Amino acid sequence: MAAITTTALVKEYPGGVRxxxxxxxxxxxxxxxxxxxxxxxxxxxLLRSIAGLEAITEGTLHIGERDVTNAEPGERGxxxxxxxxxxxxxMDVADxxxxxxxxxKVRREARRAKAVxxxxxxxxxxxxxxxxxxxxxxxxxxxxxxxxVATEPDVLLLDEPLSxxxxxxxxxxxxxxxxxxxxxxxxxxxVTHDQAEALALADRIAVMRSGRLQQIGTPQEIFxxxxxxxxxxxxxxxxxxxxxxxxxxxxxxxxxxxxPLPEGVRVPEGKAVVWxxxxxxxxxxxxxxxxxxxxxxxxxxxLGAATLVSVVSGDTRLQLVVAEEDAPEPGDRGWxxxxxxxxxxxxxxxxxxx
Amino acid sequence: xxxxTAPTTERRTAAPAAVGRRTARKFVVRVLxxxxxxxxxxxxxLPLAWLVTQPFSSTPTMTVGWPDWTxxxxxxxxxxxxxxxxxxxxxxxxxxxxxxxxxxxxxxxxALSRVRVPGRDGLxxxxxxxxxxxxxxxxxxxxxxxxxxxxLVNTRTGVVLALSGGVLPTxxxxxxxxxxxxxxxxxxxxxxxxxxxxxxxxxxxVPIARPGLAFVAVWALVQVWGNFLLPYILLRSPEAQxxxxxxxxxxxxxxxxxxxxxxxxxxxxxxxxxxxxxxVNRRYGFxxxxxxxx
Amino acid sequence: MSLAxxxxxxxxxxxxxxxxxxxxxxxxxxxxxxALALIGLFLIFPALWTIYLGMTDYRLTGLAAGDPQLVGLxxxxxxxxxAAFWRSLRLTLAFVLLSGVLGQTLLGFSxxxxxxxxxxxAKTVVETLVLAAWVVPTSVGAFLWLALLDRRDGTLNRIxxxxxxxxxxxxxxxxxxxxxxxxxxAFSMLLFSSALGAVPPSxxxxxxxxxxxxxxxxxxxxxxxxRGHILTNTLLITLWTFNTFSPYLxxxxxxxGRSEILPVYIYRTAIPGGQLGVGAAISLxxxxxxxxxxxxxxxxxxxxxxxx
Lengths: 354, 294, 308
Prior knowledge:
heterotrimer, B: 2 domains, 11 helices, about 70% helix, C: about 300 residues, mainly alpha, MetI-like fold, 16 helices, globular
C-alpha cells in the first residue's frame, strides 16, 4: 500500500513565512491526485515536502506504512518530474533514464536494457542514443517521465507537467499522462495552476490557498459543490457569477428580478448571502418566466459552438453560456433563469457554502 | 525478443537504526566542513591580520599581535618625504592612465559599437588576444628599449603610456559591450535635430554612458595602482617612483626594515584600492572580460 | 529641398553615413585611431621588435649598448645551453602546475562549492577575506608574507612552534607557491561561484531524488555542467601564473636561483645582468608560449559560445 498521508504538515521558512500551514491530506494508493491553486498557494511547497526537497517543519508524512518525515529524498520510494524536466545535457536518453539505476548500482548492460524498454513503453523508440537537446519538448517530457518510472517508485510526483508544452501538445500530453498513470497504477500527485487540467486529469483534487487546504474532492464535487467562494470562482473555465444579495420572501433578489434558493437549502429571511451560478447552468429566455431576472444583453462573445452572453439587470451584470442557435444580439431584452438544482448560496460573511 | 529480467531495484527502506547512523554521519561531515572553512578563512586572514593590527601598534613587529591602538606610525609616515611623494606618484600614474584609457577607449568603443567597421569582430578578437599575450612580463625588455629609444625612460609619461597600452584593449572591450546596450534612439533623435557626431557624443552619449565610464575608470585605476614591474624597470629616480616600488625598497634596501614606516605605509597604500574595489563590486557586481591583473 | 533628393541625384557618390551618429567609416576611423595607435606603439610594436632585438647583442652598458650587432640565433643557442635557463623553465612549470592549475583552481572551486552551504554572514566573511588577498597591492601582499615567514618574528613560526625556520631560504619554491595561491585564488572562486550558480537546481534535485550522494551529484551533474568553465579557468590561470612577477618581491629568485621562475630570470638577465639581447630572446619564447595558451583559450571560448 503506497498511500500518502500528511498530518498537520507545516513548512515554515526563516522569517516566519509559512509555505504550508497545517495540511492534512490522505492520498489513496494508485490515485491520480492534483494540487491546485494560484501562485504562492503552497502547492509546490507541499509537493517538494513530499519529495523531501523541503524539510518539514512540523507534522508528519507517511508513505505507505513508513514515516518518512525526516527521510532523505533518495529513500522515500518517490520519483519526481520537474517543470523543466532537468534532463542531464551531457548524457544520452538511455543514460538519463538509467541514472537512478546507476545510483542503485545496477550493472551497465542491465540498466541500459531497462532504460530502453521503459523508453519504448513511452513512445521513445529509437531515440535512446540522442541527447536531450536533440529532442522535442514532448519527447523531453517523456524522457523525464521514463526516468521517474524506471525505478518503479511507490509515488510519482509531477511539478506542472504540462506547462512547458505548447497549447496543442498540451492536450495530447494530457491524455497520454492519464493513460500512463492508469497503466502503471502508481500513486501520482501533480501540481498545477490550471483548473481545467486538474479537472480533466485527477481522480481527486485538493484546492489550496495561502498554504491551507480549501477543499478536497472529486472533480465533480469541486465543480458542482465548491465549499466556498474562492473555490467556486477558481474552478470553471468561465467565471461563476457571484452576486451579493439577501434572502427576501424565500428567494434571492438578483438585479431587477430574483432567483430561487438552491434545492434543499434553508436560509433565514434577510440573511446576507452570496448567490452563485455558473454561466453554463443559466438559461436565457426571450419570453417571461415565473422566477427570473430581466435584463438587456450588453455584449456577446463567440466561444465557437456556444456564446458567452453578458446581461445587465439593474446594476448587476450576469454572464451565461447560450448555444449558438439561441444566441441573442446585443440590445435584446429577455430573462435569465436559474435552476434550483444548479445554484449555490454562500454565507456572505464566512464565504462558505450553505 | 529476449526480455532481460529487470533487476529488482533495491528499495532503500529508512530503518530507524540506519537513520540514526546517517544523522550521526551527517553531523560529523558538517563539523569537518565547518572546520575546513575555518581553516581556509584563517589561511587568508592571517597575513592580512598584520595589516590591520601592526600599523596601530607603538612598537610594531613582524609578528601579528594585538596593538595598543596608536596613530604614531602614521606621523612617522607623514614625515617621510619619499613615502608621501610615492603615493602622489601612484595617483599621477593611476589617474593619468585612467584619463588616457577612458578617453581613447570610449572613442574607439563608440565607433566600434555604432559603425559597422569592416573586420570589427576580428579586430576585437585580436585586441583581446594581444592583451593576454603581451603582458608586462613578456614585453619588459622591448618596452624598456622602446622607452630608452624614445627618451621616455625615467619619465612618468612613459610609464603612463606603457600602462595604458596594456589596459586599453580590455577597456575597449568592456566599453563596447556597455555601449551596445545603450539604445540608439537617443542618438537618433539628436541626429534628427541636426546634431553632429561630436555634439551627439558630448550631449547624449557621454552623460548616458557615465556609469559605465565610471566603472571602467575605477577598474583601470585598481589595475594600475599596485603595478610594480613597469615602474620598477622604467623609472630610475626614487622621486618618480610610485608607492608599489617605494614600498619594496623600504623593506629590501634599507637594511633593518623600519616597521613603523612600513606598517603605516602598507595600510595607507592598500586602503584606497580596497575601498575602490568593494565600491565597484557593490554597485556593478563582478564582471569578467578576460580581465588582466598584473 | 528635401534631403532625399541629395542621395538620389545621379552623379552623387557620397553616401550619408548609415550609422546612428552619422560618423561614417571615416569618422569611425578617426575615433579609433588614437586608441589603435597607442596599442600599436606600446603593445604590438614591442612584441614584434622583440624578434629583432632577440637577434642582437644589445647590452645595457658597454660597447654593445651604443653599437649593437646582429648576432643571428646566437642568443638562442646561448640560452638553450644555459643550465640556469632550463632550471628556470622547470621551476616555472612546477610553479604554474602547483600554484595555478592545482592550487588556485582546486582551492577556488572548493571554496566556491563550500560557500553555498554557509550561512550568509559566514559566506560574506570568507568571500571578503579571499578577495582582500587578491585586491591588496602585490608589494604589500609580499611584505605581509615576508612578515609571516620571518625567521625570528614571523607569526608562522610562532604558531607552528618552529622557531628559527627561515621559510624563504629553506623552502623558497614552496613559499612562493603558497603565496601565489593566496593571492590568486579569488579569481577562481568568483568564476566557479557564478558557474555553480548556473547549474540548474532541478538537475541537482533530480540526482538527489535518484539517491545520489553529494559526491555523486558533483560527479554526475555539477562537473559536466561546468566543464567549459573549468577549462577556461585553467587556461587563464595558467597564463597569468606563467606571467606573474610577484615572486620576485618575495625571494628575488633566490637563494641562488632556487626560485627563479622565468619572469624573474628574464629580468635578471636583461637589467641587472645587462644582456638585453638575450633577455629579448627569452621574452620572445615567452610571448610564443603566451600566444599558444591564449589561442587555446579563445578557441574554447568561441566553441562554447557557438554551442550555447
